[in-house]
């Protein structure tokens, strides 16, 4: 039994009325400091009460710690740890195995868990595939603003009209809207002749209307893509007036060359026909225009012009627009030497050359330096893309016909970004290639030439080309929409394609398009008629007595309102496909593999590694047909009809040895298999933004 004096000699510490015992001094000097069997931890008690506390009262014993097992005299008890104990007491306990061990275990556990968490985070980051951006996950819908919806009853569409119709895009599950130009313009080329790049034409509304439209679109999760027209301005632009008068600062804003009223500087011709030079008396020189004489070409070799145009890009980015469609980019630069372009037919009398098809455009298109200009704008757009969810998109417009390598250059290089994609116009040639093999050939023209890792896109119509349903026949419009929405990449939809609108007939006297006035066969009016919203007056487009172009007579049946009520309509099927494209992984980021093509049918599959569900798309561009896909061992014997453009019996089984399609029918067949087609058929398959699916965790990962 320890006495009070022993306790004190054992270097007792009393702090603030607590009694502490320094165990270390007792054991370090080897003396057997007997504390008795136990000491009660009495917590808050006075010094004089300690005596009682160390008494041998059995009831007060609470803990006994054997410091030296086996040796009776080393066995002693001590106070229980208590809340608020000072450091010295804490240290006393902390060395004991029963406290030290769990502590060490916890310590190492924390280290291991932290490391595991860091490793997991790194793995997740490294293994995560890139998220698809908004311009990849939605079709791009083109609005021609004169013809979409008129809000002020003047017979011409406007910005408020577009605002009224935003629900249409939510209905169609479309997020990306490209609006053709609405800048202040004398409208010689219906807005592609810009008088002021920082103002809205009163015909379309005001800057306030634009701001309201953009805000409303962003509220609804829609993105606005503007037309940017760098190649030329209107001849009414103040720069051109100043340039024509030889103003020191502006004289080189445009391309001027010596000439006289009878002799142009060279043989260059305009895209819209005739010489691309026009004489200005005031300056006694000719200016150059790739399009109308009211659209003088800017001189991009002048650094001031480049700076001005970049500031305009910034102006709209600051306003919050989500992207630009870069108009007519191949024309931005011309050769400085102004030499004649070579004739396609060297024998042709040079004086008779008046269309672009009669010359090789070696000096007026795709000149060295063009891509630097676009890349610089891309750089500006990237600065504005840094905010999360505010990626600014760029699409380039360039008709290089089948000079695929020229087109693909607009994708940029692996190290320098340019447009997100150049428009792919190859499917516009479907009317002259209307077979299964023809369709596959046009698809392949893009897929086989697109740089690795880039994102494809598909266009069948716009404000410059005849409507596809008119040129292939309306019976094929559904199958064409199915092609666009099931191919990998971004589909484009020109307003009205979602309901199967067709070209209107415009008599020669009624022609509005300046290009049409030069060449009536090339008039673009037929594809620009007012949107058909309902079977009401002016198809619900306008309350005016007269619309700027006539409505298509079939608007009483072909209109949005009627088609919304019909589950088999072009519109309902478009919507179903648009929703499906978003919902089904294999459709928006899976492999596309060619399976079949013949005179009638083009078939391809969409699959994603790791996911058993896949789709076979069978498209008929010819006559009724039955195909036998028994040889494709990766396909199961039986597939399920997910959607047909002609039949309603969805869910019906389809046997792979006998897949029948009617003329113009498209089938979307679903199947389940653990066998992938792409590993054994690399040359028939393409993938962008590759990812694999991990079923157990229901996640996508980079593979
Ligand atoms: C583009 C436009 C076209 C316009 C031309 C000149 O090709 O799509 O409509 O006439 O550029 O700006
Ligand atoms: Mg109007």
UniProtKB/TrEMBL annotation:
How does this protein lie in the membrane?
Answer: Single-pass type II membrane protein
Q: What is its main location?
A: membrane
- In this chain, composition skew of type Acidic residues spans 46-57
Spans of biased composition, class Polar residues?
520-532
Fetch the InterPro entries from UniProt: GH, GH13_cat_dom, Glyco_hydro_b, O16G_dom_2
**Subunit organization:** Disulfide-linked heterodimer composed of the catalytic light subunit SLC7A9 and the heavy subunit SLC3A1. The heterodimer is the minimal functional unit. Assembles in non-covalently linked heterotetramers (dimers of heterodimers) and higher order oligomers; the oligomerization is mediated by SLC3A1 likely to prevent degradation in the endoplasmic reticulum and facilitate heteromer trafficking to the plasma membrane. Disulfide-linked heterodimer composed of the catalytic light subunit SLC7A13 and the heavy subunit SLC3A1.
Protein name in the entry: Amino acid transporter heavy chain SLC3A1
């Amino acid at each position: 039994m320890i006495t009070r004096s022993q306790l004190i000699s054992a270097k007792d510490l009393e702090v603030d009325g607590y009694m502490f015992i320094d165990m270390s001094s007792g054991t370090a000097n080897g003396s057997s400091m007997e504390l008795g069997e136990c000491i009660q931890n009495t917590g808050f008690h006075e010094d004089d009460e300690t005596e009682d506390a160390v008494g041998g009262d059995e009831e007060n014993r609470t803990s006994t710690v054997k410091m030296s097992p086996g040796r009776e005299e080393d066995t002693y008890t001590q106070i229980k740890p208590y809340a608020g104990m000072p450091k010295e007491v804490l240290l006393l306990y902390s060395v004991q195995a029963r406290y030290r061990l769990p502590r060490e275990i916890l310590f190492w556990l924390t280290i291991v868990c932290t490391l595991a968490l860091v490793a997991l985070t790194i793995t997740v980051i490294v293994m995560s595939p890139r998220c698809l951006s908004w311009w990849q996950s939605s079709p791009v819908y083109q609005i021609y603003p004169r013809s979409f919806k008129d809000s002020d009853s003047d017979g011409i569409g406007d910005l408020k009209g577009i605002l009224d119709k935003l629900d249409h895009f939510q209905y169609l599950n479309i997020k990306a809207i490209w609006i053709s130009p609405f800048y202040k313009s004398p409208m010689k080329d219906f807005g592609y002749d810009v008088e002021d790049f920082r103002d809205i034409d009163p015909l379309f509304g005001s800057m306030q209307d634009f701001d309201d439209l953009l805000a409303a679109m962003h509220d609804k999760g829609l993105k606005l893509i503007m037309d940017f027209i760098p190649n030329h301005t209107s001849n009414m632009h103040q720069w051109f007036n100043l340039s024509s008068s030889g103003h020191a600062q502006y004289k080189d804003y445009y391309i001027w060359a010596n000439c006289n009223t009878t002799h142009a500087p060279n043989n260059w011709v305009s895209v819209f026909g005739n010489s691309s030079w026009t004489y200005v008396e005031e300056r006694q020189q000719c200016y150059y225009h790739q399009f109308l004489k009211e659209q003088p070409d800017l001189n991009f070799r002048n650094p001031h012009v480049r700076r001005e145009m970049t500031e305009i890009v910034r102006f709209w980015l600051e306003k919050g627009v989500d992207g630009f469609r870069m108009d007519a980019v191949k024309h931005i630069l011309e050769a400085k030497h102004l030499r004649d372009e070579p004739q396609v037919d060297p024998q042709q009398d040079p004086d008779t050359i008046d269309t672009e098809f009669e010359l090789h455009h070696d000096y007026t298109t795709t000149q060295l330096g063009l891509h630097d200009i676009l890349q610089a704008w891309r750089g500006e757009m990237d600065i504005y893309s840094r905010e999360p969810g505010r990626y600014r998109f760029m699409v380039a417009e360039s008709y290089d016909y089948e000079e695929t390598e020229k087109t693909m250059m607009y994708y940029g290089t692996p190290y320098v970004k340019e447009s997100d994609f150049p428009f792919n116009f190859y499917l516009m040639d479907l009317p002259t290639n209307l077979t299964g093999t023809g369709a596959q050939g046009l698809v392949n023209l893009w897929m086989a030439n697109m740089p690795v890792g880039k994102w494809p896109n598909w266009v069948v119509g716009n404000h410059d080309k005849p409507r596809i349903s008119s040129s292939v026949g309306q019976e094929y419009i559904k199958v064409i929409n199915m092609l666009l929405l099931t191919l990998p990449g971004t589909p484009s939809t020109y307003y009205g394609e979602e309901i199967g609108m067709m070209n209107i007939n415009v008599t020669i006297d009624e022609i509005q398009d300046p290009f049409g006035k030069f060449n009536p066969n090339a008039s673009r009016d037929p594809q620009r008629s007012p949107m058909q919203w309902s079977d009401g007056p002016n198809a619900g487009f306008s309350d005016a007595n007269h619309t700027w172009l006539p409505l298509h007579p079939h608007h009483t049946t072909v209109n949005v309102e009627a088609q919304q009520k019909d589950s088999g309509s072009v519109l309902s099927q478009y919507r179903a496909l648009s929703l499906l494209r978003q919902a089904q992984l294999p459709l928006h980021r899976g492999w596309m593999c060619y399976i079949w093509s013949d005179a009638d049918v083009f078939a391809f599959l969409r699959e994603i590694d790791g996911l058993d569900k896949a789709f076979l798309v069978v498209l008929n561009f010819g006559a009724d047909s039955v195909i036998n896909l028994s040889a494709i061992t990766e396909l199961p014997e039986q597939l399920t009809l997910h959607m047909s453009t002609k039949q309603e019996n969805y869910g019906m089984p389809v046997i792979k040895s006998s897949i029948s399609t009617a003329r113009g029918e498209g089938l979307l067949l679903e199947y389940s298999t653990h066998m992938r087609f792409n590993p054994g058929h690399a040359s028939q398959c393409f993938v962008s933004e590759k990812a694999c699916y991990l079923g157990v965790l229901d996640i996508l990962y980079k593979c």
